[in-house]
Model the fold of this input.
Amino acid sequence: MSLDILVQVLLSGLLLGGIYALVAFGLSLVYGVANILNIAHGTFLAISGVIASLIYAATDWNPLLIIPALAIPVFAFGYLFHATLLRPLASRSKHDETIGTVLITTGALIAMSDITGVVAGTNQRNIPVRSDMLEFGEVFVSMTQVWILAGIVALTLVLHLYLKHAWFGRAVRAVTQDPMGATLCGVNASRARALTFAAGSGLVAVAGVLYALIYPVDPNMGFSLTVRAFTIIIIGGIGNLAGAMVAGVMLGVAESLTAFYWAPKWAPAISVVLLLLILVVFPRGLGTWRRA
Amino acid sequence: MTSRPLALAGAAVVALTLATLPLLANAYIVSFVFALLVAFVIAQSWDWVNGLMGYLNLGHYAFYGIGGYTFCMLLVAGAPLPICFAGTVVSVAIAAALLSAPIFRLKGDYFAFATLTIVPLCELLASNLSGLTGGSEGITLPPNYVLNPAYYLMLILTLATFVTTLALMRSRFGYAMRAVRNDEQVAQVSGVRLFPIKIATLMLSGVFAGLAGAIQAWQFSFIDPYTMFNMGVALIPIAAALLGGSGLLLGPLVGVALLTSLQQVLLIKLNMLQGTIYGLVIVLIGRFIPGGLLRWRTIANSAALGWLSRESHFEVPALRGGARSDALPLRADPIDASRKILECRDVTMAFGGNIAVRKASLEIRQGEIVGLVGPNGSGKTTLFNLISGVLHPKSGTILVDGKDISQFRPDEIAGLGIGRTYQIPRPFGELTVRECIAVGRTFGRARAPLKQSMLEAETFARFVGLDDCLEKRADQLSLQQKKVLEIARALAGEPKLLLVDEVASGLSTVEIAKFVEHIREIRDRYGVTVIWVEHIFSALASVVDRLIVLDSGSVIADAPLAEAMHDENVLATYLGHANPEVP
Amino acid sequence: MSLLRVEHLAVAHGGLQALWDINLTVEPGERIGLLGANGAGKSTTLGAIVGYYPTMGGRILFEETDIGRESVAARLERGVVLVPEGRRLFAAMSVRENLEMGAFLAAPRRQRAATLDQVLSLFPILKEKAAQPAGTLSGGQQQMVAIGRALMAKPRLLLLDEPFIGVAPLIIRDVLVALSAIADTGVTVLLVEQNTHRALEFVRRASVIENGRTVLDADRETLRNDKGFGAKFLGLD
Done:
């Protein structure tokens, strides 16, 4: 095997993993703060990707413009989704809350995929931007890949700084770690939950645009992304950004290597097998399940 | 409320109609009812795991697919039909057993989410292992019109499913499942061994779904990864069971009938957006009736439909012999004060940086009543958790009758004869008082058969004054009643050592006095040793032989009552008052 | 004018009524105790005063203004601050971040640097531990963080719910000294404590509640000399 190909494969794994990590981190923030495992989370990405490719096909906008054009409405949609469907479950018993969450987010997954399929078709599409190639010796890197990498790094940094230093970011962490303590400090926990759900949705919309720049998207691919995100959360820890990044990149690279050196058809199995293995070997996850 | 003959008559009419259907109706109707029966078997077998045992398994549909695939692979390989079905049973059972090991390490949301990955994994395996499964081409069976035989097989499977549900709801095994659903830890300290129950339940539910998949595949004569492991379809039987009312005898049936009919209507009336309407229906169920239609008040309280909503509880046989006795059915242990029933040596337990129990050592002799006191947070409840096996000590040993139990499971410890109560009562809320006590009796050291336990539960209920609410659900009791129910449940297991965690607060003076009498009687008549954690000192003062005082996790005093009562240090720590008025 | 007046307070949570008739008056600058057996309703009373539990009946007046319908944040702004039972720290956040969360609302946020200095000089040990996750501290140090976090909100009425649970006996002394220092700066302190002996060292007056009702209200000397009080406190009439 030649080294230049390996580098290409690793690079695409890195990009894929970075996007996975963003998706997973959104899911884990929402779970940490609001105790909602959003089964439709990956579907939000799939549909954002499909819409982004439709917008691109219709307008030829720069993807940098598509990102906010999509992320803001999806943020609002996430807020409404939480306020009308999920927030009322909090007054129920724990078991009913779990069942309610599973049903609502699963129902939303089915309905949203179906509507998108009817409106946009179930075929795969992407954002076919033309891009220059940079040449490093034998290795070719497209400008698109550079932009995506920059986007992932920038988003991660912004998230990190926001959660670490901004007051609302701290409030979100506080609600994750002790909702009662946070309330007693004056944090409006239910507002924090709704906004976090909205922010998680907006984040996934951004990830959707990035994804559609390098891989094809279709309305029914969402669930397999949710499964990957769940694996990443278990490895990286609830609400742990650095953990999500490491685990996400590991998974992305593993999938790329599998796809290239073995068979693409086995790449999606990695996350599930990894998940089941981790459960067997580390019954409590990797020491990170504070809330479990 | 319907009478039993009426219900039986109704069931007979339904059974007869179903049995003669292929003679009366056209193929369209038969295949619709066939689809309904398939959905019912999947939904109902799923509900054994969720409705009875409390685990939300979102990967149940995989068993259906595995069953279908095994059947087709065997049939194509030339195996005769009975072998194909037997092979289906075996392969699904193995799959369920293998899955149990990882997934039952998880609880609640995590369990639900992890199981959600099973169906996609199976789809992937079915597509990729093309040598075995035909890959995405699937498997086509030799052409053969088998709608009617498949229908009859399905009818038999449906009947078996229904009978199994009835049997589970009434069996000892079923009560173990329901105890696990209500409170896993209390089930364990009552003597229920968890893992065999969980693995057996998952295997049972898998086998029924797998057989449904096999019969469906046989009837359809074609399978591929998409039809057998379609995530869009996988959750529909689950939604149906939840729509009807999970855990109720008729819940899954009603839900399946409604949802399958809706599906037929949609298929006929619409040529697109069926998935959307389906999805929205599921969203609405989750949003408004997670308990299910049959638990909806309008239905549960209605005269015409209320019988659909009936919960399954133990029914007392109408005729019963035997005189009523007030004596508890406990073997009386002769008191032997030289016997060390419990010994803790340097037991230490820490949570993160907080040391909850610090090198605690104590000895309890058979037939003693020992008061364990100390301020909030001094480690009393942690010590109980260590003795009952809910927690394992970081260091030190705990001996019961000389045997080191520090690494035993709670159910093993319960089997040795250690019973406990909880400070905040934790009854099995969905069970009746009689059933709660019987669970303690049939799984504890007593190991009495279920029916006998149900009958003997009365004596224990009478002993603590709950005989007038035997058939009431435990979650509808008052706090005081729940407290004494804890005692009855623990006592029914026939413990030799009973750990009582704070009963008196919230009870009236008269109730406390009565309670003290019970404790005394348990010891005097049946030789049960008691350790009693209590804040209300006067309650202890009249009955205990000895006081052990904990402070910040350490034993700071261990002395006969009279001596401890005059120890200034103890009084200051425990009561914070130099001269307590002790009646 | 009293600082706080609770009249006929009734509260239910989790479907069960926990408080029936709580009456309590707190004068500005005073140190008052709230005593009672386990389950008598002490924590619920404090939770209702800060707005964590909604009230079912009765009134809560702070400086004669009815605050019974206000949010937790609105009452915090008035200076009603609770140090909850079990401390409720943010275990994975640093000690410093925990303290700063106490100054989450706008007014205290502006003064947080100065307040933080005061808190750290009150509990010097926290200065060394400022960068450590709060979950790694000992029980006593965690309690100091909890009290410090409440002080960051600039309390006028500080409610403390069993602050000595899980605190090593030697450290209890330090915490009591700090509480006295806080009270000496003019902060009114309401202490819930089940160790009467210890509580009476600190407070000058106490209310006793039983089964969700106020049954006694007296000054320290009366309580110490009251023969029937021991029995009452032990939950027996």
Q: What stands out?
A: Chain C has one domain: 29-53+71-233.
